Amino acid sequence: MSLMLNDVRVARGKAHIIAGLSLPPLPPGSMTALIGPNGAGKSTLIHALAGLLPARGSIRLHGQALETQPAAERSRRVGLLPQTLPQAVGLTVYELLLGGLLTLGLARDEAEQRIERVLGELRLAGLALRALATLSGGQRQLVALAQLLASEPELLLLDEPNSALDLHWQLAMIEAIRADVARRGAIAVLALHDINLALRSCERVIVLHRGACVADGAPQTVLDPALLAQVYGVAARIETCSQGQPVFILDRLIRPDEV
Questions:
Q1: CA max distance for the chain
Q2: What is the phi-psi region of residue 81: left when phi exceeds 0, alpha when psi lies from -120 to 50, beta otherwise?
Q3: What is the reported pTM?
């Protein structure tokens, strides 16, 4: 049981963004980071997996082809946390979460139990009766995370989920996702620019460059100086800090005459 991609191709208009992407299976209980420079295809792939962009090839979740499933079933099985924050409408946080779960077909009692659990785990209970319009960008991003976790999809897709969060909440977000994935045997795929966050949170990184996978494996194994130079055009390295944790260190830009 896993997420499997075989010869996946995605275009935006006439531009081919993802060209023939095939990957080894992503197993249940795993967190995988999609990294790469701007325009590499990270967000495009995330949106194709979510069914928001048409894709050719095969995308199979636990042996079932997602592209052939009805939209409602795919929405139940696959959850997306997009870069776009929830709109600052007049709904309260609780109303937004409850409405989303009822739309998925949950009974009200179960929906309320999930909301209480997720808000408690994220330490957001104090925001439950706040209107979205009164929340900061970071708070709305956390509410979107709560909505994703409460829906309990088999596949969690997160597109730059830390973009509006401070350091405290970035770690809280990662811990919440890791705990959810481990508890339910779900699969999480995160599009990230922050390589240190990828090192800390994910056991696997997929490096995209110009719509193709140029590396796939354990972060400390594949993110070597040669790859970082090829993909990002920088001199950089992964070191081990005094606490025994891997740390990404950016040294400098690579000059054109060094290429």
A1: 64
A2: beta
A3: 0.95
- Nearest 10 degrees: CA dihedral of 151, 154, 159, 161? 60
Q: For residue range 88-141, what is the model confidence (pLDDT) as tens digits?
A: 678 999 999 999 999 999 999 999 999 999 999 999 999 999 999 899 989 999
Cα(202)–Cα(221) distance, integer angstroms: 13
Residue 90's contacts (CB-CB under 8 Å, 6 or more residues apart) are: 131, 132, 133
DSSP state of 92: B
* 225-251: pLDDT as tens digits: 999 999 999 999 999 999 999 999 999
CA distance 44 to 215: 18
Among all chains, which residue has been given the structure tokens 């909440």? Answer: 169
Residues pairing with 64 in the sheet = 61
Please state the rounded mean pLDDT for residues 39-47. 95
Closest CA to 33 of 178, 148, 166: 178
Structure tokens at 186: 């779900």
Q: How far is CA 175 from CA 62, 116, 147, 194, in A?
A: 25, 18, 16, 16
